Amino acid sequence: MRALRLIKEEQLEFGAIDDPPAPKAHEVLVRVRAVSLNHIDLFGLRGMAFAKRTLPLVVGVECSATVEKLGAAVSGFREGETVVIYPGLFCGACKACKGGRENLCESISGIMGFHLDGMARERLVVPANRLIHVPPQVNAIDAACTTVTFGTVQHMLFDNARLERGETILVHAGGSGIGTAAIRMAKIIGATVITTVGSADKAAKAKALGADHVINYREERFEGAVRRITGKKGVDVVFEHVGPDTWAGSLLSLKRGGRLVTCGSTSGITAETNLYTIFQQQLRIIGSFGSTVQNCKDSLTKMAAGLKPVIDSVIRLEDFPQAIERLRSRDVFGKIVARLD
Ligand SMILES: [Zn+2]
After folding, report:
1. For residue 167, what pLDDT is reported?
2. CATH assignment of 151-287, among 3.50.50.60, 3.30.1540.10, 3.90.180.10, 3.30.565.10
3. Cα(230) to centroid of ligand 1, in Å?
4. Given this model, what pLDDT does residue 47 score?
5. How far is ligand 1, taken at its centre, from the CA of residue 106, in Å?
6. Which terminus of the chain is more solvent-facing, meaning fewer CB atoms within 10 Å of its CB: N or C?
7. What's the gap in Å between 88 CA and the centre of ligand 1?
8. Residue 107 CA, ligand 1 centroid: distance in Å
9. Of 93, 66, 95, nearest in space to 78 by CA
10. Which of 259, 214, 267 is nearest to 238 (CA)?
């Protein structure tokens, strides 16, 4: 079967790999329908010391799939139904897992597409406890944006930053996959959204998505614009995933007692922090990684109710390496999804 593999750092190759084995008693064989493209497929491991892995590695951390064959002891799923796969191999037995915080699992054995072979392949076998039902209203392309794109944002905004109706949030990179999701999820609960983009074209698209204020960071310093827009008060929440390029400005954009939630650092991994700002302004900085199974279920419920992911383009899996170049150049608005069927 065909698969997309990382053969050395930042180099992808599309080619043949062995077919998966038959599913064991508690496993399920699935046929992958669509894989969503993420920065971590190519760049995410730069500087992340914890992410030890062996190459070549099948990439792909989020996908939708059709159930093809159930292991003998599997119940609750049926052949032919659409599912998504939770990418973390959580233990299911520790305190965090039992409390529904699978992304804090004390003995997680890896993340698919990250430390272990991922989902950018035609078929794979997964333990049944990591499959999540997709409601019939959600198509396979949108469903491929569940576990990372929507799940991460759901976890950041609501479990971690505890964003509420009436609050103001600054969403960085409003044209990115998670930026577009954050704008929509924040707007739908009644928050005021300020976002940053790097072009006039993206500014128009972010406005059309519902952002109340759009800042072109190439034309003005975003922290100054945030102060102007909020009447010098600052925002309640900053949604960070850029890192050193925005970090200092993000902290300055918060109001007293504000919360910064971060899930990524695409511009590097080290940034200076003004500690005086942290304690004097009584800020809270919250790290967020991945999502819980419940976040994924809530994301699919939102999609079924009409809150769709923003899809930039749908490509073939074999065109994935070129699409990564578009991600690198930031010439994307929303998600690039590769379909396999
Ligand atoms: Zn666990």
Report:
1. 98
2. 3.90.180.10
3. 42
4. 46
5. 5
6. C
7. 10
8. 5
9. 66
10. 259
